[in-house]
Amino acid sequence: MKAIVYRSTGGPDVMELVERPMPEPGLGEVRVRVRMSGVNPTDWKARRGSRGHTDGVEQVPNQDGAGVVDAVGEGVDPAWAGRRVWIWEAAWQRADGTAQQYVVLPLRQAVPLPDNASFELGASLGIPALTAHRCLTVAEGGPDRLGPSAMAGRTVLVAGGAGAVGNAAIQLARWAGATVITTVSSPEKEALARAAGAHHVVNYRTGDAAAAIRAVAPDGVDTVVEVAPAPNADLDLAVLAPNGTVALYANDGGNELAVPVLPMMFGNLRWQAVMIYTVPATAKDHAVAAVSAAVADGALRVGERSGLPLHRFPVERVADAHAAVERGTVGKVLIELP
Question: What predicted TM-score, i.e. pTM, was given to this entire model?
Answer without folding.
Answer: 0.96
